[in-house]
Amino acid sequence: MKATAVTATVRGLAPSLLVALVGAALLRITVGSDVFLQYVKEGLRIPLIASGIVLLGLGIAGVVRRVTAHRQEPVMQFGRDAEGNAVWLRPAKDDGHGHDHDHGPRVAWLLTIPAVLLLCLTPPPLGSFSASREGTDAVVEPAKYADLSQQPAAPGSAAGASVTVPTPMSLTEFIGRSHDPNKSLADRKVRLTGFVSPGAQPGEWYLNRLVVSCCAADARRLRVLVHATGPAPATDSWVDLTGVWNPTPEAPATTAPRIDVSEQHAVPQPRAPYRDLPPSDQ
């Protein structure tokens, strides 16, 4: 009888504890942490914090209400059995139909898995697997781009020297400029940052960024085909590279633009992996 009562109490507390767990998980990835940026865009931090506070509050309130109600229930009450003998009976929790309705839908327990994962682990953002899927390319709208002919001279170079520093550029701008009828990328060194995915040919690999409108579920791909000497960096690693656009006029418009790399080095994953920013702004 005692074990049954304990089970019933735990079952009654479980829905509120689950709500509180989800709220705590949301607060863990948003308050004092940038983990949420691996799932949603940066503008959703405040709504996520508000949702976490509300869910945690509702969960705690539900636990308090349940415990208070349980403590106010009589443990035993005097009554008579079927033969009319005086006995002490445990009050039955009944809704008028002969059974208890304290349990909720079992499918709700599936929320426990992502909540526990968010509290205990930090899954990585989407990477090469998503970037390699076909039909996920982001649309780069045509735009008027400023001329790159006035690239600044490298620090310490002599006046009038032809040495220039590479122009930091987002993948969105690089892809857009590759379709610029004015050929604004021609013979201009640029710097790009992204993560690596394998290419189809030896000596080729892709530099990628994933951009989102809301969350990782709607991620769309930006990618550039990289030609470089030596082995490709590790898949899903982040790299900063310098190179020159290599036009391929015969390629379809949807083909990833090509860049011939002169130097590259590994960099940490940026704070906001789903924001396509130039290297200097990461």
Automatic annotation (TrEMBL):
The chain crosses the membrane at residues 12-31, 43-64. Residues 246-282 are annotated as: Disordered. Keywords: Membrane, Transmembrane, Transmembrane helix. It holds the Pfam family DUF1980_C. It comes from the Bacteria. Residues 184-274 form the DUF1980 domain. Coiled coil: none annotated. The keyword Transmembrane applies. Residues 247-257 have a biased composition (Low complexity). InterPro entries: DUF1980, DUF1980_C. The keyword Transmembrane helix applies. NCBIfam families: TIGR03943 family putative permease subunit (TIGR03943). This is TIGR03943 family protein. It comes from Streptomyces kaniharaensis.
